[in-house]
Amino acid sequence: MSVAKKSPAAASDTQSFAQRIASLETIVRSMETGELPLEAALTAYAEGMQLLQACQGALQQAEQTVVILNQQQQLVPFDPE
């Protein structure tokens, strides 16, 4: 089973957040089977860690954007009515 077709860094640079999460889920599922040879498992783990870091960075950036928007009072409270 081939987990990565291009380098992990290149993959995380070109993928959207949702694509990164989907790739990370695929890696986790493949590793959970226990059928990957050691070398492939290590490669998958390294790719997963890079994807995780990219996702965490995107979430931190989104959080900072929300904080800035709140400070600038550009967000309005949600009114369900």
Automatic annotation (TrEMBL):
Pfam families reported in the protein's UniProt record: Exonuc_VII_S
Highest rank taxon of the organism: Bacteria
Catalytic activity: Exonucleolytic cleavage in either 5'- to 3'- or 3'- to 5'-direction to yield nucleoside 5'-phosphates
Function: Bidirectionally degrades single-stranded DNA into large acid-insoluble oligonucleotides, which are then degraded further into small acid-soluble oligonucleotides.
HAMAP family assigned: Exonuc_7_S (MF_00337)
Subunit structure: Heterooligomer composed of large and small subunits.
Name of the molecule in the record: Exodeoxyribonuclease 7 small subunit
Species classification: Bacteria, Pseudomonadati, Pseudomonadota, Betaproteobacteria, Nitrosomonadales
Originating gene: xseB
